[in-house]
Design goal:
Length: 233
C-alpha cells in the first residue's frame, strides 16, 4: 500500500496526522458496552473483560471476585494502526477509592490481542493516595495470567487521585510512566516491537470485603499520539 493511501485510510478512520504524527482523542461521551466509538477500539481477547463507557467515564467490567489466574482478566481496549513509538495519557476519575479492593487504571502500549493471547506493556497506578499507593509496569506475555513485572514502585510518592493525568510512552525499548508530568517509573524491554496504545482497568476485592464497583474508577478522557521514529537508538 502506498503511503498516501495509508494516510488517507487513517484519516477516514478518525485519526489525525501532523507530518508523521498521528493522534486520537476522546472524552468518552455517550453509552457503549463494549467501548467501540465507531469501531476505533478493539478487544479480541476472549479470556479478558471489556471496557464500557457510561456517564462520561470509560471503566472496566470485572466482577472483582475471581481467583487464581482468572482474577487477571483485566478489562481492556486498544486502538489500531499506530507505529511502534507511541505515547498515551488519560484523565482519571476516581469517585470512590476503596482500600479493601485493588482498583487500578492502566495505560497500554504496543498492545495486540487474539482470543487466548494478549501481549504488550501495561503501565498503571492504584487508585489511592498514601502508603498503599503504587505504580507498576507489567509486560503481558500472552496467555491469561502470564505476565512479568518490569517496574514496581510503592509509597506515598506514587498516589493517584481523581483529576490526575496518567501518562505512558514507549520509544525504542524505553518505557516511561508519569503522573501529572512527573516521571514515576522507567524501564527498558526489547520483547515487543509493535502494537497499539489503549486503556485498561483492574478490579480485585479481598475476601469478605464485599464486591467493588467498576463505576467507582475509570478514565474521563484519553489521548494517544504516534511518536516519530528516532534514528540511532
Amino acid at each position: 500500500m502506498n503511503r498516501f493511501l495509508f494516510l488517507t485510510l487513517l484519516a477516514s478512520a478518525g485519526f489525525s496526522m501532523i507530518g508523521f504524527s498521528q493522534t486520537y482523542s476522546t472524552r468518552f461521551e455517550g453509552i457503549e458496552n463494549p467501548l467501540s466509538e465507531a469501531g476505533k477500539w478493539t478487544n479480541n481477547g476472549l479470556d479478558w473483560t471489556q471496557i464500557t463507557k457510561k456517564d462520561g467515564v470509560a471503566c472496566g467490567t470485572q466482577t472483582g471476585t475471581n481467583a487464581g489466574i482468572f482474577k487477571f482478566n483485566d478489562s481492556y481496549a486498544h486502538l489500531n494502526g499506530f507505529p511502534p513509538d507511541q505515547e498515551a495519557w488519560g484523565e482519571v476519575r476516581i469517585t470512590k477509592p476503596d482500600a479493601s479492593c485493588y482498583q487500578e487504571l492502566e495505560i497500554l502500549l504496543r498492545f495486540t490481542g487474539s482470543p487466548h493471547r494478549t501481549t504488550g506493556y501495561e503501565c498503571f497506578a492504584r487508585c489511592l493516595t498514601g502508603a498503599s499507593s503504587y505504580v507498576q509496569i507489567v509486560r503481558w506475555d500472552g496467555p491469561l495470567g502470564k505476565f512479568t513485572y518490569l517496574a514496581d514502585k510503592h509509597g506515598t510518592n506514587y498516589g493517584m487521585k481523581t483529576g490526575d493525568i496518567l501518562k505512558a510512552s514507549v520509544v525504542g525499548n524505553v518505557i516511561t510512566v508519569s503522573i501529572n508530568g512527573i516521571e514515576k517509573a522507567r524501564v527498558t524491554d526489547d520483547t515487543f516491537k509493535t502494537g497499539n496504545p489503549g486503556i485498561g482497568a483492574y478490579l480485585a476485592c479481598q475476601s469478605g470485603q464485599g464486591i467493588g464497583s467498576n463505576l467507582d474508577f475509570g478514565f474521563a478522557s484519553f489521548t494517544a499520539k504516534a511518536l516519530a521514529a528516532q534514528a540511532g537508538r
